[in-house]
Design a protein that fits this description.
It is a single chain. The chain is mainly alpha-helical. Helix content is 55%, strand content 0%. The protein has helices at 4-10, 20-23, 36-45, 52-55, 65-78, 84-100, 108-115.
Length: 116
């Protein structure tokens, strides 16, 4: 999903975009699941990297985020790795740091490397 053309084709809005739930419109009245349509794109494209113990409990249905995210966070905690929210916060901080730098200062790779 690094290519902006793919963002458009898959109607994907990355999780580090501030207030992305306000940008995503879905076809139901449940405002708690608006990001699911974008999240499912990322999950399906990265299915091969989802641990078996997490994926075996995954259900392709509305509300999947209520089981998937806690299952991933549990798996990451067992491995001593940062949670999804911690990774998201680092990505947002890296983006804000880059936006605050003067134009022409190419530290993108450095900032993203630190974020992950």
């Amino acid at each position: 999903m690094a290519n902006p053309l793919y963002y458009r084709d898959f109607q994907y809005i990355p999780c580090d975009v501030p207030d992305r739930d306000n940008l995503i419109k879905d076809d139901d009245d449940d405002e708690g699941n608006d990001c699911e349509q974008s999240d499912i794109v990322s999950i399906v494209l990265n299915m091969g990297y989802v641990p078996d113990e997490v994926f075996s409990a995954f259900n392709f249905a509305t509300g999947f985020h209520k089981q998937f995210k806690p299952a991933m966070d549990s798996y990451l905690a067992k491995k001593g790795k940062p949670s999804i929210d911690e990774k998201k916060l680092k990505a947002i901080e890296a983006r804000q740091s880059l936006e605050a730098q003067p134009k022409g200062n190419n530290k993108l790779l450095s900032a993203l490397t630190k974020a992950f």
